[in-house]
Amino acid sequence: MLVEAGHPDAMDAASLAPWLTIVRDPAGEHAVLSDGWHHIRIDIAQGSLAEGRPVILHYDLRGVASAGPKILPLRRLLDLYRHRRFAVSLYPPDRRVERWIQALRVHDAVMAGASQAEIARALFGSDRDSDAAARRAESLKARVRRLAAEARRLANGGYRRLMRQKG
User: Which residue of 29, 70, 106, 160 pairs with 44 in a disulfide if CB–CB is 3.0 to 4.6 A?
Assistant: First the structure.
Protein backbone atom coordinates (compact mmCIF):
# COMPACT_ATOMS: atom_id res chain seq x y z
CA MET A 1 0.00 0.00 0.00
CA LEU A 2 1.51 3.34 -1.05
CA VAL A 3 1.58 6.04 1.62
CA GLU A 4 3.04 9.45 2.24
CA ALA A 5 6.63 9.72 3.40
CA GLY A 6 6.93 10.03 7.15
CA HIS A 7 4.12 7.62 8.01
CA PRO A 8 5.35 5.66 11.08
CA ASP A 9 4.62 2.27 9.47
CA ALA A 10 5.96 3.20 6.05
CA MET A 11 9.01 1.53 4.57
CA ASP A 12 10.93 3.69 2.12
CA ALA A 13 11.42 1.23 -0.73
CA ALA A 14 14.07 3.48 -2.31
CA SER A 15 16.31 2.94 0.72
CA LEU A 16 16.39 -0.78 -0.09
CA ALA A 17 17.63 -0.16 -3.65
CA PRO A 18 21.28 -1.20 -3.03
CA TRP A 19 20.14 -4.75 -2.23
CA LEU A 20 16.91 -4.99 -4.24
CA THR A 21 16.24 -7.15 -7.29
CA ILE A 22 12.66 -7.40 -8.58
CA VAL A 23 11.10 -9.93 -10.94
CA ARG A 24 7.48 -9.81 -12.10
CA ASP A 25 5.30 -12.68 -13.24
CA PRO A 26 1.52 -13.27 -13.47
CA ALA A 27 1.38 -14.08 -9.72
CA GLY A 28 2.81 -10.68 -8.77
CA GLU A 29 6.15 -9.21 -7.90
CA HIS A 30 9.02 -11.14 -6.32
CA ALA A 31 11.71 -9.13 -4.61
CA VAL A 32 15.04 -10.36 -3.30
CA LEU A 33 17.20 -8.28 -1.01
CA SER A 34 20.77 -9.57 -1.07
CA ASP A 35 24.35 -8.56 -0.43
CA GLY A 36 25.59 -11.64 -2.28
CA TRP A 37 25.87 -13.77 0.87
CA HIS A 38 22.60 -13.15 2.68
CA HIS A 39 19.16 -12.83 1.16
CA ILE A 40 15.55 -12.06 1.98
CA ARG A 41 12.75 -12.95 -0.42
CA ILE A 42 9.52 -10.97 -0.48
CA ASP A 43 6.50 -11.94 -2.59
CA ILE A 44 4.34 -8.92 -3.37
CA ALA A 45 0.70 -9.79 -4.12
CA GLN A 46 -0.50 -6.19 -4.60
CA GLY A 47 1.37 -2.99 -5.30
CA SER A 48 5.05 -2.70 -6.06
CA LEU A 49 8.41 -1.98 -4.52
CA ALA A 50 9.73 -1.05 -7.96
CA GLU A 51 8.34 2.47 -7.81
CA GLY A 52 10.75 3.38 -5.01
CA ARG A 53 8.05 5.12 -3.01
CA PRO A 54 7.15 4.60 0.67
CA VAL A 55 4.95 1.56 1.20
CA ILE A 56 3.24 -0.22 4.08
CA LEU A 57 3.79 -3.94 3.83
CA HIS A 58 1.10 -6.36 4.96
CA TYR A 59 2.42 -9.69 6.16
CA ASP A 60 0.59 -12.97 5.64
CA LEU A 61 1.06 -14.75 8.97
CA ARG A 62 -1.56 -17.30 10.02
CA GLY A 63 -1.57 -20.17 12.43
CA VAL A 64 1.17 -21.57 14.59
CA ALA A 65 2.72 -24.04 12.14
CA SER A 66 2.73 -21.91 9.00
CA ALA A 67 3.75 -18.66 10.73
CA GLY A 68 6.90 -20.12 12.29
CA PRO A 69 9.06 -20.28 9.14
CA LYS A 70 7.96 -16.76 8.14
CA ILE A 71 9.07 -15.03 11.35
CA LEU A 72 12.84 -15.20 10.71
CA PRO A 73 12.65 -13.62 7.21
CA LEU A 74 10.45 -10.88 8.66
CA ARG A 75 12.96 -10.22 11.45
CA ARG A 76 15.73 -10.10 8.82
CA LEU A 77 13.79 -7.60 6.71
CA LEU A 78 13.03 -5.32 9.66
CA ASP A 79 16.63 -5.43 10.85
CA LEU A 80 17.98 -4.67 7.36
CA TYR A 81 15.59 -1.76 7.02
CA ARG A 82 16.49 -0.32 10.43
CA HIS A 83 20.26 -0.83 10.33
CA ARG A 84 21.04 -0.86 6.57
CA ARG A 85 23.07 -4.06 6.88
CA PHE A 86 22.45 -7.79 7.07
CA ALA A 87 22.77 -8.91 10.69
CA VAL A 88 25.12 -11.88 10.92
CA SER A 89 23.28 -13.02 14.07
CA LEU A 90 20.11 -13.57 12.01
CA TYR A 91 21.94 -15.82 9.53
CA PRO A 92 23.31 -18.76 11.51
CA PRO A 93 25.93 -20.74 9.61
CA ASP A 94 24.66 -23.83 7.82
CA ARG A 95 26.68 -26.81 9.04
CA ARG A 96 26.03 -28.65 5.75
CA VAL A 97 28.09 -26.16 3.74
CA GLU A 98 31.43 -27.58 4.94
CA ARG A 99 30.40 -31.06 3.75
CA TRP A 100 29.27 -29.72 0.37
CA ILE A 101 32.61 -27.95 -0.05
CA GLN A 102 34.45 -31.16 0.78
CA ALA A 103 32.28 -33.04 -1.72
CA LEU A 104 33.18 -30.49 -4.41
CA ARG A 105 36.87 -30.85 -3.59
CA VAL A 106 36.57 -34.65 -3.82
CA HIS A 107 34.74 -34.32 -7.14
CA ASP A 108 37.52 -32.13 -8.52
CA ALA A 109 40.18 -34.59 -7.30
CA VAL A 110 38.34 -37.61 -8.77
CA MET A 111 37.96 -35.79 -12.10
CA ALA A 112 41.71 -35.09 -12.01
CA GLY A 113 42.40 -38.81 -11.52
CA ALA A 114 43.40 -38.86 -7.84
CA SER A 115 43.04 -42.08 -5.85
CA GLN A 116 40.98 -42.30 -2.66
CA ALA A 117 44.17 -42.55 -0.61
CA GLU A 118 45.59 -39.41 -2.28
CA ILE A 119 42.35 -37.53 -1.69
CA ALA A 120 42.24 -38.63 1.97
CA ARG A 121 45.82 -37.45 2.51
CA ALA A 122 45.15 -34.11 0.79
CA LEU A 123 41.91 -33.39 2.67
CA PHE A 124 42.56 -34.89 6.08
CA GLY A 125 46.31 -35.39 6.41
CA SER A 126 48.03 -38.69 7.05
CA ASP A 127 50.18 -40.57 9.55
CA ARG A 128 52.13 -43.47 8.05
CA ASP A 129 53.96 -44.81 11.12
CA SER A 130 51.65 -47.21 12.97
CA ASP A 131 48.78 -49.67 12.87
CA ALA A 132 46.52 -46.92 14.23
CA ALA A 133 47.50 -44.77 11.28
CA ALA A 134 46.61 -47.59 8.87
CA ARG A 135 43.17 -47.94 10.51
CA ARG A 136 42.71 -44.17 10.33
CA ALA A 137 43.70 -44.22 6.66
CA GLU A 138 41.01 -46.86 5.95
CA SER A 139 38.46 -44.78 7.84
CA LEU A 140 39.41 -41.69 5.86
CA LYS A 141 39.19 -43.59 2.55
CA ALA A 142 35.67 -44.66 3.55
CA ARG A 143 34.88 -41.03 4.29
CA VAL A 144 36.23 -40.07 0.85
CA ARG A 145 33.99 -42.76 -0.74
CA ARG A 146 30.94 -41.25 0.98
CA LEU A 147 31.97 -37.75 -0.11
CA ALA A 148 32.50 -39.02 -3.67
CA ALA A 149 28.99 -40.49 -3.67
CA GLU A 150 27.63 -37.15 -2.41
CA ALA A 151 29.62 -35.33 -5.12
CA ARG A 152 28.17 -37.60 -7.84
CA ARG A 153 24.65 -36.97 -6.52
CA LEU A 154 25.22 -33.20 -6.55
CA ALA A 155 26.84 -33.26 -10.01
CA ASN A 156 23.95 -35.35 -11.39
CA GLY A 157 21.36 -32.70 -10.55
CA GLY A 158 21.27 -32.79 -6.76
CA TYR A 159 22.57 -29.23 -6.68
CA ARG A 160 19.14 -28.10 -7.94
CA ARG A 161 17.54 -29.24 -4.68
CA LEU A 162 20.10 -27.17 -2.73
CA MET A 163 19.10 -24.10 -4.72
CA ARG A 164 15.40 -24.62 -3.86
CA GLN A 165 15.99 -24.92 -0.11
CA LYS A 166 14.86 -21.98 1.96
CA GLY A 167 17.23 -20.66 4.56
Answer: 29
pLDDT in tens, 43-86: 888 888 888 888 888 888 888 888 888 999 999 999 999 999 99
Whole-number Å distance between alpha carbons of 157 and 146: 17
Which pairing describes strands 28-34 and 20-25: parallel, antiparallel, or unpaired? Answer: antiparallel
* 110 in Cβ contact with 126 (< 8 Å): no
DSSP letter for 2, please: B
Phi and psi torsions of 87, nearest 5° = -75, 115
Residue 148 has pLDDT above 60, yes or no: yes
Q: Which residues neighbour 75 within 8 Å (Cβ) at sequence distance 6 or greater?
A: 90
Does residue 129 sit in helix, strand or coil? Answer: coil
More confident residue, 30 or 167: 30
Inter-CA distances, 99 with 65, 75, 139, 144, 147, Å: 30, 28, 16, 11, 8
What's the whole-number mean pLDDT along residues 74-100? 91
User: Is the distance from CB of 47 to CB of 55 less than 8 angstroms?
Assistant: yes
The predicted structure's pLDDT at residue 129: 59
What φ, ψ does residue 146 adopt, rounded to 5°? -65, -40
Residue 11, classed as helix, strand or coil, is strand
